[in-house]
Amino acid sequence: MSRELTVGQVAERSGLAVSALHFYERKGLIRSHRTAGNQRRYDRDVLRRLAIVRMGTELGIPLAEVAEALSQVPVGHTPSAEDWRRMSELWHDKLNRRIVLMTRMRDELNGCIGCGCLSTTSCPLMNIDDHLRSEGSGPRRLMRAGEDTYQS
Amino acid sequence: MSRELTVGQVAERSGLAVSALHFYERKGLIRSHRTAGNQRRYDRDVLRRLAIVRMGTELGIPLAEVAEALSQVPVGHTPSAEDWRRMSELWHDKLNRRIVLMTRMRDELNGCIGCGCLSTTSCPLMNIDDHLRSEGSGPRRLMRAGEDTYQS
DNA sequence: CTACAACCTCAAGCGTGGTTGAGGTAAAGA
DNA sequence: TCTTTACCTCAACCACGCTTGAGGTTGTAG
Fold it and tell me: What pTM was computed for the model?
């Protein structure tokens, strides 16, 4: 059993589609070298990188950011403990921020149950801006709600 | 000051772009009626609905799902306490699930710091499937990693 | 040595969540 | 009344994260 993996093998082991692997390669997330016949061959460390990629995408982190994080991890061989630590820490923080925000919203939503107030001054639902407004994907306008004097 | 809001007023008060309001209307998330001159006018309850929409999108909930949740809330007048409770509860659960998952991943990532193991059997990073695999947007293949005997 | 599976590239397409712009109409203030 | 601002529709476009398909090549099992 060769040390090298074909794209099909990587797909199977990672649970990703071959097309996704090609895509990730174009985006610089993973790397391969080629056989004489121009077919991809992967070092086994690609599976680690893909695990990281998947974790990121699961968390809704844009691929570009995942790529950036991964750029700190050397290719072709096992990342050093230090490399790994840096990356984990970065992601941990990211995750943590999201969790804090979501928890706050959840709790506020909880407090809202049955109230239906949505008053501008007190209702958290009406004042989401403070919380998230920086997450989200796609071309989304950075919103800044005008000073709002609306009373329910 | 009229009871009716123009699209510009709604945009300003909600912090959303006019184009987004048109878009949401096409998607059935909000409704308007028209003046004799074919301009949109909104009941004030649209602001509540938009607050809900924004909350949902912040949380990464697809618009279609937000729309579904909103369909339980009557249009044109203040939702009843019961309507509101049902919706809040639904979202609370959704949020809660996401928080639990993310927390688990965070903690596991925490445990990974410095380890770099990524062993198939024990490393949580290599076994993400169990956790999330149902979130995410866009046409994404429902993955099911093959039985994987890979040893690092 | 042949057949079939697996691989290659490149272009186009899809779903989500919108924005941008052209070309034209409505409404509100001086 | 006039002018300016806000609004209208419709079509096209953007970014992201891939998939699909066409048309052709490689590699391996029998």
Answer: 0.74
